[in-house]
């Protein structure tokens, strides 16, 4: 680990690969001899236009985006996409289905009801968002404008390990917290969006992959703000207004690094190793540590766990002592409590090994 740094298990914004930070540091004051920082550049300058074009190309290459899909680089994070999806995709059907398997899907569903009817195709709230129901239990409406799901529920630690099959109804995914962690089937989706602050860069932006039949404005609501219009964003190469220039540049560096290390299959391999190590430690602890999520729905990115059945005093002691081992930001989300370790790309395997070593010694000392 670099001097003075800690292992940061934050759910987002989260740890970045050190190599990306170091490259940004090298280029911070004088970007490639331009005499200025990217932070200071006009977004219409030839240097910045090249940065944006390369980022888009690398997104297309790395994620194998079909050539007729639009790649959107958006501001406002994933939360704004909850509204933008509805404003651009609901069309005359005015109703959409939501597979709600956690708190983010729940928020997306709530937003739909502002502009139309968000129908619950499934909702696992009553079992505290710890499962993904089998397809046979989903109530899908063939007349829905789209089906929305959240590929990885960051708070609850629930992840789809497959692309949901919803027939011919357009499929929409919030991939904010497992984007860039494994290859994805872009062509099976009408729209994929992801805030980038977990696995692809700093906060402030979202990326979208949009099927062409939703890029022509034909399903856009009249009240859709220009800022949220997929057509306007796509037609203007994601530069209708000033983009989040510096965030976009850092994402570009992250993408270049992703290519260098071997693309999405590299991150997938790392994610499997890291989450396997942590779940193995939890499951091998004879109940001292417990993960509430059903095994088949467990996330490789966010691992929630309790200690001794949710002993709050012991959990506090765990968090305090973990810090002494440079293991930071392990508290669970404020709404669910307990602990949570987020294992995004920026967290090296050695960081997870340090965590599991600490968990074992903490268990030995506190089991009684
Ligand atoms: N969706 C998921 C799965 C998330 O994890 C988050 C944030 O953590 C959001 C949406 C909201 O993203 P933002 O804060 O960028 O609006």
Automatic annotation (TrEMBL):
InterPro entries: Aminotrans_V_dom (IPR000192), Pser_aminoTfrase (IPR022278), PyrdxlP-dep_Trfase (IPR015424), PyrdxlP-dep_Trfase_major (IPR015421), PyrdxlP-dep_Trfase_small (IPR015422)
SUPFAM superfamilies: PLP-dependent transferases
Annotated ranges, domain Aminotransferase class V: 6-355
GO MF term set: O-phospho-L-serine:2-oxoglutarate aminotransferase activity; pyridoxal phosphate binding
UniProt superkingdom: Eukaryota
Gene3D superfamilies: Aspartate Aminotransferase, domain 1 (3.90.1150.10), Type I PLP-dependent aspartate aminotransferase-like (Major domain) (3.40.640.10)
Cofactor entry: pyridoxal 5'-phosphate
Pfam families membership: Aminotran_5
GO biological process, alphabetically ordered: L-serine biosynthetic process
Enzyme Commission designation: 2.6.1.52
HAMAP family reported in the protein's UniProt record: SerC_aminotrans_5
Protein name: phosphoserine transaminase
Organism: Symbiodinium natans
Gene: serC
